[in-house]
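Input record (Table S2, row 229):
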Amino acid sequence: MTAAAHGALPDPGSTARTRIRRMPERTVNDRTVLHAVLDAGRVAHVAVVDEDGQPYVVPVAYARRGDEVVFHGSTGSRLFRGLAAGQRTCLTVTLMDGLVAARSAFESGMNYRGVMVLGVVRRLDGDDELDALRVISDHLLPGRWSDCRPPTPKERAATMTLALPLDECSVKVRTGGAEDDPADLVDPVYSRIWAGEVPLVESLGEPVTDEHCPAGTAVPDYVRGWAAS
Ligand SMILES: Cc1cc2nc3c(=O)[nH]c(=O)nc-3n(C[C@H](O)[C@H](O)[C@H](O)COP(=O)(O)OP(=O)(O)OC[C@H]3O[C@@H](n4cnc5c(N)ncnc54)[C@H](O)[C@@H]3O)c2cc1C
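Output record (flavin-adenine dinucleotide complex):
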């Protein structure tokens, strides 16, 4: 989808900072793909720098809400407080799709879909924050929000919810098999080495019922459905 279709938002990879220079053929400029990668992921890594200049990369659960990524942390976290105070950040989401074994170690690698977002977060409050918390819950545990106890005022006070706009971002995707050095493909020894891709698929297992559930408590259908999502 083009920037025009998304209002004034620049296409992924279209700014000086997000133009992919290394392996530019892996650039994806399509916002629909950007959204699809974010919707398929569950964990983002968010960069923050503390008062001493030490960078940290913090893994967080997240969800996409329209053209922003929302995530939450503790109001006591100095790292999250730094972000909320207006520090610039970089958020990445990586999906691994396969291991690629080439004839050489140098050309071996991975298939992946990666998103990188640059910007400044906005701290959410009130109903907007509650909506973001619902969106995060619905993304990670579909159907659970309406089936579990809502957050209390005390829990809300302990939670900081942030939104990072998808204004300046990039999408990099590698697909396919080995891209060998042509010399290895005709080498009498190296050309006989097996090469190929082993797909990597993340999956959920069978639900394990908590010991405090009264006997006979059934696993909800929506929980059973998670394995298929
Ligand atoms: C699972 C996985 C494993 C990888 N393993 C390696 C490895 O072992 N060694 C290695 O060198 N590289 C690896 N990469 C690629 C790596 O993420 C970088 O793309 C690469 O190192 C080039 O970095 P750069 O800063 O020189 O890129 P540049 O092309 O100079 O970066 C310019 C801009 O491109 C965008 N960009 C760069 N990388 C990505 C990305 N991955 N996803 C989305 N946008 C991006 C950003 O907006 C960035 O600001 C891996 C990627 C993934 C997803």
